[in-house]
Amino acid sequence: MPQKLNIVILGLSITSSWGNGHATIYRALVRALEQRGHRVLFLERDKPWYADNRDLPQPPHGRTALYQSLNELNDRFRHDVHEADLVIVGSYVPEGVDVGRWVLRTAAGHVGFYDIDTPITLSKLQRGDYEYLTPDLIRQYPLYLSFTGGPILDHLQSDFGSPMARPFYCCVDPDFYGPDPASADHPDWDLGYMGTWSQDRMPKLERLLIEPAHMAPQGRFVVAGPQYPADYPWPVNVERIDHLPPSGHRAFYNRQRFTLNLTRQDMVTTGYAPSVRLFEAATCGTPIISDPWPGLAEFFEPEREILLADGPQQVLEALNTISESERRQIGERARQRVLAEHTAAHRVQELEQYVALLRDGAGESEASRMAG
């Protein structure tokens, strides 16, 4: 059995899922870490937009604390960070560069950076945007946990100098996501999508949901998520839900015949970047129609576990020609794939393995090999 760890995580948010997908990932990870016997302290910067939209103000697993400033972080939590076996700094943490430098100076144990936005992070770095990470910090973090796999890991090590970059994909807690026969037998919508408004995802949403809604006026569609323009001309057969807390995700997926997955362009460019929504929907047994991206077949087998679509006709073909029996089989096959490979429990075991490598000095060995 692996050593029980004292872990501190500094993340964007665990108390509020408003406008971010980080919270559901952190909630699942902290719960799984605690079930595995580890102790976790989650530190979150208290921001007004999250304070006004906290759907889990007191997370039941681990210990959560809010802080107002870097000075408060140092005054109140310096001892916790110094004594921790592992400290993880997440992407998009406010003042993340200064937080990261403080953690690296303060922590006596292992330190890692958890990037839930790797392609976006690297795109920002290439533009000289150092909002929460800098190239020199990549070299200083002994472990880089990336929610994106594939070639980007070699890029992080060879071009940015990361001592040890490892895949750490998002995950799902199957205790909170699963089929609901009462809803699935009588779905309210033919196709739905859940996601915060994003300018570079909007053309895909229009092509793969809005256009099909116009072309199939008798169809039933839904879009859930905040920050969409108030004056957007939604078709009359597209229902809008402004914000859906994680407690409502399972019911939302189960009320759809099919659900849509859309990928931001930075993620498409790098590939190997499954979203947490992908795993949530699959765990509910809801068949997924996704835009194609490199590496997707590493997570789901196309046409067997997931359907791909580039345009509205492919979406309508799926909605209109796939039998009910095959629809359910696609969803169930995807569900079994996630349960076998992508739960929070799987991620915790991977993290334990990475910490063991740090303990054995593997990161230093890799860095020395690349330098040579």
What does this structure look like?
By secondary structure, this protein is of the alpha/beta class. It has 16 helices and 13 strands. It has helices at residues 22-35, 48-51, 70-83, 96-106, 118-126, 135-140, 151-158, 181-184, 202-215, 249-254, 265-270, 276-283, 312-321, 324-341, 344-359, 362-371, and strands at residues 6-11, 39-45, 63-67, 86-90, 110-115, 143-146, 165-167, 189-194, 221-224, 238-241, 256-261, 288-290, 307-308. Strand 4 (86-90), helix 4 and strand 5 form a beta-alpha-beta unit. The longest helix has 18 residues, at 324-341. It is globular, with a radius of gyration of 21 Å.
Give the key terms.
disordered C terminus; 372 residues; alpha/beta; seven-stranded parallel sheet; six-stranded parallel sheet
Number of strands: 13
The helix/strand series, from N terminus to C terminus, equals: EHEHEHEHEHHEHEHEHEEHEHHEEHHHH
Count, helices: 16
The gross shape turns out to be globular
Report the end-to-end length measured between terminal Cα atoms.
36 Å
